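Possible regression after last week's pipeline update?

I re-ran a chain I had predicted before the update to compare outputs. Posting the input and the new output here so someone can diff against the archived version. Not blocking, just want to make sure nothing changed silently.
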Amino acid sequence: MDEKFSILRKKIKNSQSLVMNAIIKDHQSTICILCGTNEDITKEHVLPQWSFDGNPEKFLVNTLNNQPASYIKTTVLACKTCNSDLLGAFEDYLKRLFLEKDGDQFNTKDVDCVIWWLQYIAFKLQLKDLRSNFLRYKGKDFIPYLSTIPIAMFWGDIDTTPFKVFNIIRRSRRSLFTKKKQQKFNSLLVFSTKNESFYFFHKVDEFIFIELPQVKKAFFLFLTKEFSEHKMAHAECMEIIKKVYED
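New output (post-update):
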């Protein structure tokens, strides 16, 4: 797995300008979001099918416009090599890790991989918003002039000028080839869970949470915020989780 993970990171790094320039020029570019090739393109699930057991009834609802999309149909583009060979080996490693170790048993490499995985999901969600048009606001009437504007331009309480949006996505992709993530270790929270239902939520450029009942673990990552002490991240994380579950 180590060798393939290293190859994947190198592919992402070497194609940073190629991929970002293509996506900015044409949000619907038919290229691999990891290496930039336009050959052997496949659909890569934003959330891995194993994480929600491939259940077609599991839906992601975008809170910006209340447009639902089933997880199984929520995809981005990746070539066969990156998707099946490189990512496949990486996710097989993660599944074994989650089953075999408790969070307090994760070593430095394990934590690095979990952070990378959550950052990758966050990046894919940003691309999905860039490639999806707004259409309507929270169940209201269809608005023609909004129909061709990407959801990403309506992220909300952050600066969502195109320049800022592209910089957020560019920075998110750059995080995928950052080798050492020690500065992010306090930003990751790992929980044991007895919840029998898959659960997921996130906020663009701020945090991401995923609960996996099949491995009895949940993960929360502050995407851009860093903490000097783990307990500070834990306290803030619990406040966010409490608010989301109450809503």
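Follow-up from reviewer: compared with the archived run. Residues 108-131 form the longest helix (24 residues). Marking as no regression found.
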